[in-house]
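Hi Y.,

Following your request, here is the sequence exactly as I used it, all 118 residues.
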Amino acid sequence: MNFWETITGSDLSREWKAFEVRAEALPAEYRAAWETVKANLSLYGDFSGRNLTPIVDGALGLLEEAASDGQDIHDVLGDDIPGFCAALAGGEGSRNFRDRWRQQLNRNVACKLSRLGG
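Below is the corresponding structure, written out as tokens. Let me know if you'd prefer a different format.
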């Protein structure tokens, strides 16, 4: 990856397009699960989403392997897909973007209040 790709995010666009091409080859119920997994994992992404690329690749690989083995999607992901995604992203209680924004806001407010008070 070169500097230009890092700045523009074109490398991420290529990777996500490749993920989508791979997902199109999945059976219908697996594609629906893929969309749910993507939506739930996006909560744990950083600003660019680079931290999610290996996680998404692994999740898609799991779906591809399970589909090729003929497993039922509920046997693979269970009934709690958001919990499955939280576990993939670093475990239950891992910080999502709302937590990071809340912490940043609290830090900024505390900084402003300390300037006013002191």
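The longest helix spans residues 97-117.

Thanks again,
Q.
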